[in-house]
Amino acid sequence: MSPTTPVGPTGPTGPAGTTSLTQPADLAPGNPPAGGGGPLARLTAAVGSGIARVTDNALGPYQSAIVRIGFAGTWLLFLLREFPHRRELYGPDGPWSWDLAQELIANNGAFTTLMWSDGMVWFEIVYAVAVLSSLMLLLGWRTRTASVLFMVGVLSLQNRSVFMGDGGDNVIHLMAIYLVFLRCGQVWSLDARRERRTRERPAREGLGAAAGPERPDAAHADRVGPLLWCALGFVLLVATFGGLVPGGFAGGWLTIFWGLWVVHGAWWAVHRIESDVRPRVLLDIVANLAHNAALVVIMAEACLIYATAGWYKIQGSRWQDGTAVYYPLHLDYFSPWPALSDLMTSSGTMVMLVTYGTVIAQVAFPFTLFNRRVKNVLLAVMMTEHAAIALVLGLPFFSLAMIAADAVFLPTSFLKRLGGWAARARDGVVRRVPLGRGRGGSEGSGQGAPPPEKETAEQAHVGFTA
Amino acid sequence: MDAYDEVSNARRGPDEPEGPVSPGPGDTAADENDSADADTDTPAPASPPVAETDTSIPAPASSSSADDPAGVPVAGADTGRAPVPARSPAWASRQGPYTPPPPHSPSPPNASPPPHARPLSDGTLAPAQSPPPAASGIASLPLPYQIVVALALAVVAVVACVHVGMVFLHVAPSNTMTKQHGQAVDDWVYPEFEQNWKLFAPNPLQQNIAVQVRAEVRKPGGGFRETGWYDLSALDGAAIDGNLMPSHTEQNELRRAWDFYVSTHDTENRATSSRGELSERYLRRIVVMRLDRELDGERADGSGGVVERIQVRSRTTNVPAPEWSEEQVSDKPVVRELSWWSVTDRDRTEASAE
Q1: Which of A318, A332, A395 sits opposite B233 (nearest CB)?
Q2: Under an 8 A CB cutoff, do B150 and A290 touch?
Q3: What is the mean pLDDT of residues A179-207?
Q4: So where does this one cross the membrane (chain B) (predicted)?
Q5: Which helix (H) or strand (E) holds A410?
C-alpha cells in the first residue's frame, strides 16, 4: 500500500492543509490548494489526507456498533436457544465426546478452552462465560474486554464440536475474531454512556470551565476496569503456566492474549499520564488503524461470502436451468413449513426468477458498493432474502448472522434514524414502567430530566455520537 | 478499557466550524457519510468549503507570527469556537491545552487554549462542541512517535491485505497460485479462518438422505431381540417441522455426522482417511444415544433392553421433480448399509448410559 511511504517524518504527514504548508512553492496564496499544484502534489495531498483519515478516526462508528450488536445478539440468542441442548452439543459427554475432540484438535490445533478440562463444571463455566460475554458485548459494557471474551467463548464452543455448526456458525466464528480489533463501542453502548456522563458531570456541577482535563478524573474514578484487567490477567497467568494455551509465544495464542492484555493495561496507564499526552495520542492512532483495517476486512469478508456463493452457483446446472431454489425447499432438513415451501415453488416462473435473482444479487453485490444507491437497494434485497431464509429454510441463526454482516454496509443516516427509533421506543417503555420500578426510574433520572426532555437529550446524543 | 472509545468519534467534525447550526453538530459531518462509500468519499478534512469560508490559509507568507513557522490562525477565534486554522486537519483543534507544541510538527500549535471550548449551553450539546482534551493526529507527535505510527500503519496495512488475499485464495477455486503456494494459504487460514461459502452451490442437494438404524437388544429377562429400522432423520425432520428455531441437534448433528462418515469412507465403507475412525465413533455415539431415547419409551412397558449391536444404513431418495417440470427422476431409494457394530461403553453417552 502506497500510503505507507509518505508517512515518513519529512514527507507530508497530514491532510491537505499540512501538505500545503510543507510545499508552499506549489501554491499561490489564496488558491484552493486542492486545485493547485501538480499531479504529484495532489497525489501526496490525497495520500496525506487519507492517512490522516485512517489515523485520526475510527471510521463507521454506527456500522461497527450494529455489527457488534448483530453478532453478539445472534450468538446470545443461539446460546439461549440451545441451552437445553448445550451438553449434547458441546459438553464433555456429548456425542462428539471430549476424547474425540481431543484427537481432532491434536491434529488441527484449533483453540478451545473446553479442552482444558473434561469436567462438567468447567464446561458449565465456559458456557456461562460465553453467554455473559455476549451480553456484555451486546450492551457495550467494557466493550473491548467483552469482545475478547466473546471471541474466546465462540471459538471455545465451536471448535469443541466443529461438526455441529453450519454456515451461520462459520460467519460468527470469523466475525468474533475481527470484532476484537474493532472499536465497536463508540456509540450505542454502555461505555459510550458512561463516558458521556463522566464528561457531563463537571459541566452539570458548574465546574465545566474550570475543570480542564476531566479525563484523568474518569480514569481515577474507574475501579471496574482495572479489576477486570487484573482478574483476566490472573486467569491468563494460570492458563499460561498450566500449559493450557496452545501455540506458544511466537505468534500463537499466547502472544495474542498477552498482547491484548498488555495493550489494555497500557491504554489505561497512558490515560493517567497528565503531563504527556503523546503516548495517549499514539495508542489512539494505533487503535484507529487496527479498527479501520478490521472494518475493511469485515467488508471484504462479506463481499467474499457473496462472491463465492454467487460465482460457484453460476457453475451449477440447477442454477442455470432456473430450478435450484426448488430443491432446498424440499429437503426434509430444511423445510419446517412444507405447505409454505410447496406454495412458494408452485410456479416454475417464480422459482426461476428467484433462482436467477439470487445469483445475480450475490454476484453483483461486491460491485454495487461503488454506487451508494444501488448498494442500498441490493442491501435491502439481501436482508429481505435472508429474513425469508430464516423462516422458510429454518435457518434463523444463519440468517441473523448474515444480516449482521450485511449491516456493515448500511448508511449512517439510516442507522442514526434506527437509533432514534430505538431510543424513542425505549423511552416509551421506560415512561410506561411504574415509578416503583427502580431500574427504569434510575435510567430516566440519570440525566435528571423529565421524560419528554430526556427524549430530546437522547436524540441529541445520537447526533453527537455520529 | 475502552472507556474513551467514543472520543475518537466525538471529534469527528472537521467541518464543524463552518457547518450550519444544528442540534447535533456531529451530524453535519457524518450525516451523508456512509461507511460503504467511505473509500470513495472525499475525506472531510480537506473539503474546499472550509478554505473558502475561513480565509486565513496558513501559508507562511501570511503568517501572523514571525517566530511561528506555521502561523497562528485567528479567523476562527472570533466566532466563539476553537481556533481552528483554515484547512487545518481536525486534530489540530483537538490537542489538549497542555499539549506542548512539537518542535518539528507542521501542525499549528495551540496558541490559545480555548477556555470556551466547552460551551455550556444545555449540557447535551457541550460534549459535541468541545473537543475532548485528548490530542490526536500524527503531526502533533514528535519524530520517534511518528516512526512508530508509520510502522504500525505499515504492519496493519500489510496484515490486512495479506489476510484478505489469503482468504480469497482459500475460497477461490484451485488455481495457479494455490497450486504453488497452497501450503502457505493453508497455514494462514487453518484452523481459525477456515470457511466454505459454496452455499447450495454449485448445485443444491437434490436428495433426502435418511439415516436409519436397527439394533440387537438384550432383553431384560435374558435373550436378544432385533428391532426394526428407526428412521432417525425422519425424527429430526418431525422435530424441525413447524419449528421457528430448529436446534443444531436436530438440523446439523446427525446430518453432518453422516456427511463426515461418507467423506471419510469409500463406497465399501473402508476408511479413506485418518479421520475415518473418528467419524465411525461419532456416528455410533449419536445413533446409540438416539436409539436409547427411542427405546426409553418402550422400556417403560418392560419391552426395552440394552443395545448390544447396531446396524446403520442410509436411504437416499431423490427429491421429486417439480410439478411444472417435465423432468423424470427415479423415486427408487438407494440404500447403503453398513456392517453391524458392537456397542461398547465408549459408544454410550451420558444420556444413553443411564
Answers
A1: A332
A2: no
A3: 87
A4: 147-169
A5: none
Q: Are residues B57 and B152 in the same domain?
A: no
Which of A14-23, A59-68, A212-221 tops mean pLDDT? A59-68
Using one digit for the tens of pLDDT, what is the confidence trace for B33-58?
444 443 333 333 433 443 333 434 34
B248 in A contact zone (CB under 8 Å):
yes
Q: Which of B68, B175, B197, B249 should we substitute to test contact with A (largest number of A Cβ atoms within 10 Å)?
A: B197
A219 touches chain B (CB under 8 A): yes
Place of cell 446403520: B312
B76 burial level (CB within 10 Å; 0-12, 13-18, 19+): buried
> Does the pLDDT of residue A270 top 70, yes or no?
yes
**Alpha helices (H) along A82-223:** 86-90, 98-108, 120-139, 143-160, 167-179, 190-204, 208-211, 215-221
Contacts with B, A 324-343, CB within 8 Å: 324-328, 330-338
Q: Which of A412, A413, A416, A462 to probe by mutation at the B interface, max B CB count within 10 Å?
A: A412
Q: Taking 90 as the threshold, does the pLDDT of residue A359 lie above it?
A: yes
Q: What is the number of helices (H) and of strands (E) in chain A?
A: 22, 0
CA distance to partner chain A, nearest, from residue B219 (Å): 25
pLDDT tens-place string over residues B188-215: 999 999 999 998 989 999 999 999 999 9
Give pLDDT, residue B301.
63
Position A250 scores a pLDDT of 63
Residues 250-269 of B with CB under 8 A from A: 251-253, 255-257, 260
pLDDT digits (tens, 9 = 90+) for B216-242: 998 877 888 899 999 999 999 999 999
Q: B79 and B106: one domain?
A: yes
Query: Do A165 and A110 touch, CB atoms closer than 8 A?
Result: no
Instruction: Check whether A198 has a pLDDT greater than 80.
Output: yes
Please judge whether B30 and A296 are an interchain contact, meaning their C-beta atoms are less than 8 angstroms apart: no
Assess whether B106 and B174 both reside in one domain.
no
pLDDT score of B160 more than 70 = yes
Residue with cell 492458563: A239
Residues 294-353 of B with CB under 8 A from A: 319-320, 322-325, 346, 349-351
Residue A8 pLDDT: 33
Q: Does B99 touch chain A (CB under 8 A)?
A: yes
B53/B176 same-domain check: no
pTM of this structure: 0.77
Instruction: Tell me whether residues A333 and B236 touch, CB distance under 8 A.
Output: yes
CA dist., res. B81 & res. B125, Å (int): 14
Task: List the single residue in A56, A82, A318 with the smallest CB-CB distance to B136.
Answer: A56
The domain segmentation of chain A, as residue ranges, is 2-56, 61-202+211-295, 309-409, 413-464
Domain that holds residue B159: 145-189
The number of domains in chain B is 3
d(CA B114, CA A21): 24
b/e string for A283-318 if b means 16 or more Cβ within 10 A?
A: bbbbbbbbbbbbbbbbbbbbbbbbbbbbbbbeebeb
- pLDDT for A69-117, tens place per residue? 999 999 999 999 999 999 999 999 999 999 999 999 998 889 999 999 9
B121 — contact with chain A (CB < 8 Å)?
no
Q: Which residues contact B302 (CB under 8 A, 6 or more apart)?
A: B220
pLDDT at B251 over 80: yes
Question: Rounded to a whole number, what is the distance in Å from the CA of A30 to chain B's nearest CA?
Answer: 7
Confirm or reject contact between B60 and chain A (CB < 8 A).
Answer: yes
Give domain status of residue B197, yes or no: no
Judged by CB atoms closer than 8 Å, whether chains meet at A53 and B43 is answered as yes
Asked if the structure places residue B265 within a domain, the reply is yes
Segment B133-146 shows an average pLDDT of: 73
**Is residue B248 a part of any domain in this protein?**
yes
Residue B267: burial class (beta carbons within 10 Å; 0-12, 13-18, 19+): exposed
How far apart are alpha carbons B2 and B168 in whole angstroms? 32
Residues B179 and B99 in one domain: no
Residue A242 distance to chain B (closest CA, Å) = 23
